[in-house]
Amino acid sequence: MKTIHRATDTLLALLLVAFMAGCATTRDPLPSWNQTASKAAIVEFVGAVTDKNGKDYVEPVERIAVFDNDGTLWSEKPVYFQLLFAIDRIKALAPQHPEWKTTQPFKAVLENDVKALAASGEKGLLQLVMASHAGMTTDEFEQIVKVWLATAKHPRFKRPYTELVYQPMLELLQYLRDNGFKTFIVSGGGVEFMRPFTEEIYGIPPEQVIGSSIKTKFEMRHGKPVLVREPEIFFIDDKAGKPVGIQKFIGRRPIAAFGNSDGDLQMLQWTAAGDGKRFMLLVHHTDAEREWAYDRHSKIGRLDKALDEAEKRGWTVVDMKKDWKGIFAFEKVK
Amino acid sequence: MKTIHRATDTLLALLLVAFMAGCATTRDPLPSWNQTASKAAIVEFVGAVTDKNGKDYVEPVERIAVFDNDGTLWSEKPVYFQLLFAIDRIKALAPQHPEWKTTQPFKAVLENDVKALAASGEKGLLQLVMASHAGMTTDEFEQIVKVWLATAKHPRFKRPYTELVYQPMLELLQYLRDNGFKTFIVSGGGVEFMRPFTEEIYGIPPEQVIGSSIKTKFEMRHGKPVLVREPEIFFIDDKAGKPVGIQKFIGRRPIAAFGNSDGDLQMLQWTAAGDGKRFMLLVHHTDAEREWAYDRHSKIGRLDKALDEAEKRGWTVVDMKKDWKGIFAFEKVK
Questions:
Q1: Which residues of A touch B192 (CB under 8 A)?
Q2: Contact predicate A92/A51, CB 8 Å
Q3: Are B260 and B293 contacting, i.e. CB atoms less than 8 angstroms apart?
Q4: A229 band by pLDDT with thresholds 50, 70 and 90
Q5: How many angstroms from the chain centroid is the CA of residue B17?
Q6: Which of A153, B44, B259, B324 is a Cys-bridge partner for B68, taking CB atoms 3.0 to 4.6 Å apart?
């Protein structure tokens, strides 16, 4: 009888587990999304490609989803956070570079002269990036980024930059992974600037982060190998560079792509042009109160041509104000 | 009583499953490896980094293992298989290039003139690679490689090249994955030459294959986006390039590295220099009968400096003749 009792207990435990699993699958996986067309389109797509008996079924190995970072997973205002990092870094290094007091674009940074900084253009920006991002080993750079992320605060929200990530997108990343997707970041930002936080914040490991990068060089220093970051561009993962980066790093065409600006247009086009069911989504920044509102005329994160193409092709355009119940995890959702 | 019977059945089924799982873990995961020091070192390492209560435990996300391809996972004689592909491709394209009949290094290829081909040196080799690997879209190139792999035969073994993979290494790849490792290829070979077969043959998906590559360019052709392969080097993933490639593509230092030649030395040094327990292995080609025997004086796959360093540092050196019961899956293991 003892055996039978134990067996009955096992059965009860199994039933309980099955019941709880049942509950888990009926729980809304996207609670920060309002019940609008955007959410319905996501759920419909995921349902279709994971339905083994459906015509749109996609094998798990082919379920590649790519996400832009700036403006898609976290905010990008007042300017890209990596540029704010570069500015802080220039200021920190200034005592070792007295010549910067009289040389542009460094002078502009040290004097908080936005106009002079803007006037230095792309060339000036590149100089700032190289001075702040090169000249150290990869291990040293990782530490510098980690310290900055742990201490720097966003000027408007007075919080660490890693709190400026969109709660609805975090839920979307998890929802896709729960459905067998492999999630990748494909960003114009620096790959070694992102990797120190993507695993903890997004659940995306370093090997699934694709971004722009500078050259690195293998060297032996006191018998120990190091990789030294050099002041020369290796790869720009933006615009037409995004499909190139996807091919170089993933080697497989995504079936879903998520962006927010014209810099993501080619990535969405490349994703859309594959066979079978596809999903393309743009985050449209429409919420000046809770975040920012900008599109066709913004210098940072301009959304113009891609918005036209999304309308023409029927891609999903998220209206942040209407579609998202909450923007950031730190807000209290009403 | 019916419920109790069903419960008892469930219990029996569970016991059966547990028993079978027990059997599976005691089965030798490396049956093609003889019981030598090499095998013992592998098993000891995997046991140590997966033992949750041991001092050498490594979290699964950090269990990155990198493998060279040519000479480590499949053969590389008489020359790298990709070079044989390039030669076949040049011959196939020759009718469209009458000028090749009188121009080196193409003339040498068309006339099977090994001496003239060797005389054309690295510059000639590069010309052959570009003529055979560039000028088409990535999708077109993938098809060309697939057709070649399906039809070309190795000159000595008269079998498809994908059968020239080492059975002991296939078992090792699977053994590592079964123990929570993520396995990557880090090869000097072309990444888009390898990806069409790595998933099926090695169980390694395209996004875990790192290799050399040429530039690609995003273009719209008749309203459809394509990536066009251009005759210009993008990245050489060999020697000091291997740690650079690992950092660019994986962004995490491996804890285990497997190679066979001086081209793998820096990858093994980079792996060895990390904190905690590490495993470095070189495949030493010592079996002229079943495969090939070569090391310090070979033009292809030279193993000289790396062999010295392995001896000095106590890295594992596989003696193919002694350590491997079988070399290829198609052989009958005695």
A1: 251
A2: no
A3: no
A4: very high
A5: 35
A6: B259
Q: Is B218 on the interface with A (CB under 8 A)?
A: yes
**How far apart, in whole angstroms, are the C-alpha atoms of residue B57 and residue B50?**
6
Is the minimum CB–CB distance between B136 and chain A shorter than 8 Å?
A: no
Stronger pLDDT, A12 or A235, i.e. the higher one: A235
Buried b (16+ CB within 10 A) or exposed e, B22-43: eeeeeeebbebbeeeebbebbe
B246 and B267 Cβ atoms separated by less than 8 Å: yes
Say how far residue B93 (Cα) sits from the centre of its chain: 28
CB contact under 8 A, B191 and A227: no
Among B10, B213, B266, beta carbon nearest to A14: B10
CB B247 within 8 A of CB A216: yes
- Which pTM was predicted? 0.91
Distance CA A195, CA A198 (A): 5
The pLDDT tens digits for B251-309 are 999 999 999 999 999 999 999 999 999 999 999 999 999 999 999 999 999 999 999 99
β pairing state of B279-284 and B256-259: parallel
For residue A246, the chain B residue with the least C-alpha distance is B207
Neighbours of A254 (CB within 10 A): 29
In this complex, is the C-beta atom of A16 within 8 Å of any C-beta atom belonging to chain B? no
Are residues B243 and B265 in contact, defined by beta-carbon separation less than 8 angstroms? no
- pLDDT (tens digit, 9 = 90+) per residue, A123-151? 998 999 999 999 999 999 999 999 999 99
How many Å from the N-terminal Cα to the C-terminal Cα in chain B? Answer: 55
Distance CA A191, CA A163 (A): 19
Q: What's the residue count for chain A?
A: 334
pLDDT reading at B11 higher than 90 = no
The confidence score (pLDDT) of residue B233 equals 96
Q: Is the pLDDT of residue B22 over 90?
A: no
